[in-house]
Design brief:
Radius of gyration of chain B: 18 Å
Shape of chain B: globular
Distance between the termini of chain A: 48 Å
Order of helices and strands of chain A: EHEHEEEHHHHHHHEEEEEEEHH
Oligomer: heterodimer
CATH class of the largest domain in chain A: Alpha Beta
Order of helices and strands of chain B: EEHEEEHHHH
Number of helices of chain A: 11
Number of domains of chain B: 2
Shape of chain A: globular
Strand order of the largest sheet of chain A: 4-5-8-6-7
Structural class of chain A: alpha+beta
Distance between the termini of chain B: 68 Å
Helix content of chain A: 25-40%
Number of helices of chain B: 5
Number of strands of chain A: 12
Largest sheet of chain B: 5 strands, mixed
Number of strands of chain B: 5
Largest interface: A-B, 31 and 39 residues
CATH superfamily of the largest domain in chain B: [2Fe-2S]-binding domain
Strand order of the largest sheet of chain B: 2-1-5-3-4
CATH class of the largest domain in chain B: Mainly Alpha
Helix content of chain B: 25-40%
CATH architecture of the largest domain in chain B: Orthogonal Bundle
Strand content of chain B: 5-15%
Number of domains of chain A: 3
Structural class of chain B: alpha+beta
């Protein structure tokens, strides 16, 4: 049985109260929203913290609103609400789909969008018991000095494992933070840095309040693809979003976002492919592009080389879905 | 694993509705709902499995939705409605799901059963003739996707839920027909 170590829980009802509490106890404080990532990490002593500030009673952080130009999603909106919301399904289908593929029904009820963005990085050498980690002598993320994924590596390469991040970046989402200093905005793409021990650039004093997503132009198409061993519960082992900007049936731009590599997603722009038709050859070209420029590491379960090939397959499939092409049948085994 | 020796913050008074009854109890802030249910209130129907959100055997319903008691802080459920497997049957009678699980043999070791029942009951309560005129195994599998069973291979569990779902829809259909026949 796993028990939580003692901590103080603060349950503010206003953002002003919440950020004042965060300021008072930073850096020994975390925001708890659904708790489905933070609490297991605390139980396994991966995260050690004395104060938690609950987002549960902050009304401002709940709910989805739509204007003519944007969809605004409160950071404490549940993943289930996000997956089922009519506006999100209509305007941001790849985000709704990504949310619907996270973990399990129970965890989608509890987990929130802000929590998914803030999800701690994962690694086969970290997501283990404390005893297991100590027996290995620790690593860069757990009181050691050695990386077991990249021998001799100086930076932690634990993997960003949030399903919503790739589609949020593909849609050009912007995060809104609050602190005692006032509000701050940053594109979701710029929140992430190449350090698995601190990969989300949101300060301990800051509260992630909402995500604002511009409503895409009608010709813009976005798809998300996830691969994991099981269809439910599992974190992604391959996580890709493809955005195609289209005018007069040809590509004008877009992005491929690949997550579940290291701490930061890889974002590839498609400007140099402008003018391409939206067809099978584009699927092949994008597959080739990610094969050259994004490389899964042996940090997650499953063979890294297999994940690399699978990543290419999922990018091609995403393009085929967006091009309205049928899924290619599996080769007949010989 | 033992609790560290650090001084425990003072207990907090929590008031919630538990299986339809109001409950007020003082609980330390680092206690989960699962610990409150099992070790303070003696409701051991909700099982303690992986304790980290993988297995689903601690599933309870909070405001009707299936959630994991092992990852819910007890003091965060204040003023909410919590339903455990103990609240499923009425007046000593088993819930139709419990009856079906027993009849078709959907429980072997039984450890996943309380969680399965809570996820399945949430699925049944959302089943309406308008949205879903037929019972689909795929939908049941989706509803139970967060509950692991290592014994049954799931076939009997799906069968039990399917049988009850069919009865629920048939009853709704009869009710709809009988009301439309009225002059």
């Amino acid at each position: 049985m796993l028990r939580l170590p003692p901590f103080a829980l603060h349950q503010p009802t206003t953002v002003a109260e919440a950020v004042a509490t965060l300021k008072e106890f930073a850096p020994d404080v975390r925001v708890i929203s659904g708790g489905t990532d933070l609490l297991p990490n605390m139980k396994l002593a991966q995260t050690k913290v004395s104060h938690l500030v609950s987002a549960k009673f902050l009304d401002e952080l709940h709910g989805i609103t739509r204007t003519d130009t944007h969809v605004r999603i409160g950071a404490a909106t549940s993943l289930q609400t996000l997956a089922e919301d009519e506006d999100v399904r209509e305007l941001l289908p790849a985000l709704a789909y990504a949310a619907s593929r996270i973990a399990s029904p129970q965890i989608r009820q509890m987990g929130t969008l802000g929590g998914n963005i803030s999800l701690d990085t994962r690694c086969r050498y970290i997501n283990q018991s404390e005893l297991w980690r100590e027996a290995l002598g620790g690593c860069l993320k757990s009181h050691g000095s050695e990386c077991h994924v990249v021998p001799g590596g100086q930076g932690c390469v634990a993997a960003l494992s949030a399903d919503t991040v790739a589609p949020l970046i593909a849609y050009g989402a912007v995060a809104e933070m609050a602190s005692v200093l006032g509000p701050r905005r940053a594109p979701v793409q710029e929140l992430f840095q190449q350090d698995g021990t601190w990969h989300v650039r949101i300060a301990r004093e800051e509260l992630l309040v909402a995500i604002e997503i511009p409503i895409p132009a009608p010709q813009t198409r976005v798809a998300y693809r996830k691969w994991s061993v099981r269809q439910s519960i599992d974190f992604p082992l391959v996580s890709v979003a493809v955005r195609l900007d289209v005018a007069d049936d040809v590509l004008t731009g877009g992005l491929v976002v690949v997550s579940a590599l290291g701490p930061r997603p890889r974002v590839l722009t498609l400007e140099r492919l402008a003018g391409s038709a939206i067809d099978e050859s584009l699927a092949e070209a994008l597959g080739q592009m990610v094969h050259e420029r994004a490389r899964p590491l042996p940090n997650l379960p499953y063979d890294a080389e297999y994940r690399r090939e699978r990543m290419v397959v999922e990018v091609r499939r995403a393009v085929r879905v967006l091009a309205g092409l049928p899924e290619r049948p599996l080769p007949v085994p010989r | 694993m033992t609790v560290p020796d650090a001084p425990s913050p003072a207990p907090v008074l929590v008031t919630l509705q538990l299986n339809g009854e109001p409950v007020s109890v003082a609980v330390p802030p680092h206690w989960t709902l699962l610990e409150l249910l099992r070790y303070r209130l003696g409701l051991t129907g909700t099982k303690q499995g992986c304790d980290k959100g993988d297995c689903g055997t601690c599933t309870v319903r909070i405001d009707g939705e299936p959630q994991l008691a092992c990852l819910t802080l007890a003091v965060e459920v204040r003023d909410r409605h919590v339903e455990t497997v103990e609240g499923l049957g009425v007046g000593g009678e088993p819930h139709p799901l419990q009856e079906a699980f027993a009849r078709v043999g959907a429980a072997q070791c039984g450890f996943c059963t309380p969680g399965m029942l809570m996820s399945a009951s949430a699925y049944l309560d959302k089943l309406t003739l308008e949205d879903e005129p037929v019972v689909r195994r795929e939908d049941i599998a989706q509803a139970l996707a967060g509950n692991l069973c290592r014994c049954t291979g799931y076939t009997k569990i799906l069968q039990a839920v399917e049988e009850v779902a069919q009865v629920v829809l048939d009853r709704q259909r009869e009710l709809a027909e009988s009301t439309t026949e009225e002059p």
